[in-house]
Amino acid sequence: MHLTLEMKYLKLYHDNSLLAIKSGRQSYYPSQRVKELLEIFRCMVNDCMKTGLETDTSSLKRLSTLSYRQLKGYKCPSAYRLAAISRAAGILASRKKSLRRGYPTKTPYMSKLVLISCYGFKIEVGNLRIPLGERKFEFILLTPHLVRILSDPLLNVRSFTLNETIVSLCFSKEVVQVKCSGTVGVDRNLRNLTMGNQNQVTKFDLSDAVRIADTTRRIISSFKRDDDRIREELSSKYGRRRHNRIQHTLHNTTKAIVADALKHKEAIVLENIEGIRRLYRRGNGQGPKRRHRMNSWSYGEAQRQLVYKAQWVGLPIIRLSRSETRGTSIICPRCGERLQEDRRLRRKLWCQSCRCIMDRDAVAAINLSRRGRLRFDRSRAPVGLQGGAVEAVKGNPITTVIPGVDAPKPSLDSTNPRLDRTRIPFH
Ligand SMILES: [Zn+2]
């Protein structure tokens, strides 16, 4: 059984505390009655959507009055009726939004089997108890991992979601936001994840992810049998395997980054990666191998993990806008001059005015951290960040120490033997 945790969203609670939301999931085997309920739920949502479309309603309140009576015909606990109406209202609302924005839409129809509810369930000694109707209950045994997570007394379990193979629980916690004294930029590259600011740059090796993706591609392309069904089955199997392995590496890395940022009380600054897929489309002049490599690179996933993990511990996240992200990897963090690429050295940049070679990834991370800091100082966010940070601007030389340039050789950090990380200390 595997378990993943993901953050759904985070909203401002009061003053200095936030409501962080996460979900945990595991696999399970549904009983016959649960299978029936899944089907009933699907029919109820579709019925409700039909009513909504006929009467052009998408508000929860109106949809409830219109269709609650009609859903009475289904034999199930009333809690699921409400959940079905709310689900239908959600789908209709997002359809309305798409129409308003001018996107093409289809007539909504739920074909997947799911059951969602935030009422009537209970966590009882390692089991999830859900109502089946007529005072009967279904008990789903939870994995020790999930039980351990739920044993936190501050946790509040909000809802559960079932499908044919997976049960997922959504829970929330009130967290106090950490007062930060600095920022740290995180730059995602194909072969590494670099976190850093002017004090220290740490590189996390992710070349394993590239290797795994390449191997999967080779294996899948080696299937010679001309049978679509088998081919699809095998490639989805290897695709799943690739996904799980890469996720594992990424989770370890993002966990370490958040722990490090928390230790130093630094807010995490993320670049804007909107539109990155557009760079690697067919016909952009890259070969199929490179295109595959660039597209199997999980740009968003690392950020998603960082965001939810940071929010769970109360660490602030700064997302730079597109214009704020621009040029972060080609401008010298020390003097603001445009850096030159050095063709002989891979991923190194040369600053004409500082007369030094810098690491491309370190440059990006430091620049991101600076720009995030700048935004923080400007907006006077509710988090206590003080002190002036000046961005390197051309003709306005300030003294910034670039790790790896001004400091001696990078040293290997050995705090976590599972992670291949290079730390460049500040001297
Ligand atoms: Zn320079």
Q: What do these coordinates show?
A:
The chain has 427 residues and is an alpha+beta fold. The protein has two domains: 121 residues, no CATH class; 243 residues, no CATH class. Helix content is 39%, strand content 23%. The protein is built from ten helices and 18 strands. The protein has a seven-stranded mixed β-sheet. A hairpin with an 8-residue loop joins strand 17 and strand 18. The chain is globular. It starts with a strand and ends with a strand. Bound molecules: zinc ion (ZN). The site of zinc ion has 7 residues, from loops.
Helix fraction by DSSP (H/I, runs of at least 4) = 25-40%
**C-alpha Rg, in Å?**
25 Å
Q: What is the end-to-end distance?
A: 46 Å
Helix/strand structural class: alpha+beta
What is the overall pLDDT average? Answer: 81
Order of helices and strands: EEHHHEEEEHEEEEEHHEHHEHEEEHEE
Number of helices: 10
Q: Biggest β-sheet: count, sense, barrel?
A: 7 strands, mixed
Query: What fraction of the residues are assigned to beta strands by DSSP?
Result: 15-25%
Describe the structure concisely for a colleague.
This protein has 427 residues and is α+β, with helices and mostly antiparallel strands. 39% of the residues lie in helices and 23% in strands. The chain is globular, with a radius of gyration of 25 Å.
Outline the secondary-structure elements:
Elements: E1 5-14, E2 17-27, H1 32-55, H2 60-71, H3 78-101, E3 115-117, E4 122-124, E5 127-133, E6 136-141, H4 144-150, E7 156-162, E8 166-176, E9 182-188, E10 192-196, E11 201-205, H5 207-221, H6 228-264, E12 266-270, H7 288-295, H8 299-313, E13 317-319, H9 322-325, E14 340-341, E15 348-351, E16 356-359, H10 360-379, E17 411-412, E18 421-424
Parallel strand pairs: 9-12, 12-13
Antiparallel strand pairs: 1-2, 2-8, 3-7, 4-5, 5-6, 7-8, 9-10, 10-11, 11-18, 14-15, 15-16, 17-18
Helix pairs in contact: 1-2, 1-3, 2-3, 5-6, 6-8
Bound molecules: zinc ion.
Zinc ion (ZN) is lined by residues 332, 334-335, 337, 351, 353-354.
